[in-house]
Amino acid sequence: MKVFDIPNEMTTWSQEQRREGRRIGFVPTMGYLHAGHLSLVDEAKKQADVVVVSIFVNPTQFGPQEDFATYPRDEQRDMTLCQEAGVAAVFLPAPATMYASDASVFVDETTLQHGLCGAKRPGHFRGVCTVVAKLFNIVLPDVAVFGQKDFQQAAIIRRMVRDLNFPVSIVVAPTLREPDGLAMSSRNVYLNAEERKQALGLNRTLDVVTASLNAGESSAETLRHQMCEILEQHGLRIDYAEIVDADTLAPVKDVAQGHVALIAAYCGKTRLIDNRVL
Ligand code: AMP
Fold it and tell me: Which active-site residues does the annotation give?
């Protein structure tokens, strides 16, 4: 497995792969890898000949009060997991090699980012779009795999690729869960035993909303209230609970197949997200 920490060296390797006719699959991550990340690597392997994983805790997508400094990191373990998963190359840049001190060009999606996480984390998706655009230019992937876990992120990246003509296919892979249903996340490591139990409330809420919809309830307002009630019963502090159109991410009134229920909630100090396509 190759490991690159300088963008140009990563690009040279990718250009060689492409010259030799290999399709490059790409999985961007912030590291502290778990089975959810590795399921994206498996998907990328199906779609391409060689897989590149990037590990970069991107400072520009964290707000000033957020957990950039404490975000969990374990590069050695990540390397071992990537090697075992058959990753061909890891791109692990130092922040100084990614951003010039006077960087002044950013990618700003202007519609889909307004609600949900974008409303709660100003500047987050500008940071995400900018770093993903840079990573696409550095890694030159044919296909990039993202997780449904970050539903709004995947929708915004798709939009960026469409609107800026990036020559890359975007694949969105399902959310991997712990056996009890909690969506895997690098941030789950923050949870103490009590919070770990509360955290089950996110998936449980999505179960209940699905059951209500299947039982004939289609008012988004009613379903949203139900979502809030169950989250609160679990001791979670709601950041948002919404039902939206999967493409436009606009809130809906009457819920139908293909709409998406999304939750962000604080479990103690840890902000967790989850979603389900209904
Ligand atoms: P992150 O390291 O949190 O930036 O995530 C990197 C990629 O992994 C993103 O595309 C996420 O959506 C995806 N991801 C995170 N958690 C999961 C999960 N539980 N199952 C599948 N994909 C995930």
Answer: 37
Rounded to an integer, what distance in angstroms lies between the CA atom of residue 54 and that of residue 30?
8
Q: Tokens 């940071």 appear where?
A: 127
Atom of ligand 1 nearest to the CA of 39: 21
Give the C-alpha separation, 118 to 264, whole Å. Answer: 11
- Residue 149 CA, closest ligand 1 atom number: 12
What is the value of pTM for the model shown? Answer: 0.98
Residue at 190: amino acid letter: Y
CA dihedral 85, 86, 88, 89 (to 10 degrees): 20
Nearest CA to ligand 1 atom 19: 184
- Torsion-angle region of residue 147: left (phi > 0), alpha (psi -120 to 50) or beta? beta
**CA dist., res. 182 & res. 174, Å (int):** 13
pLDDT in tens, 218-269: 999 999 999 999 999 999 999 999 999 999 999 999 999 889 999 999 999 9
CA distances from 234 to 126, 195, 196 (A): 32, 10, 11
CB 28 within 8 A of CB 132: yes
Structure tokens at 144: 């990039």
Write out the DSSP string of 40-95. Answer: HHHHHHHH-SEEEEEE---GGGS-TTSSTTTS---HHHHHHHHHHTT-SEEE---H
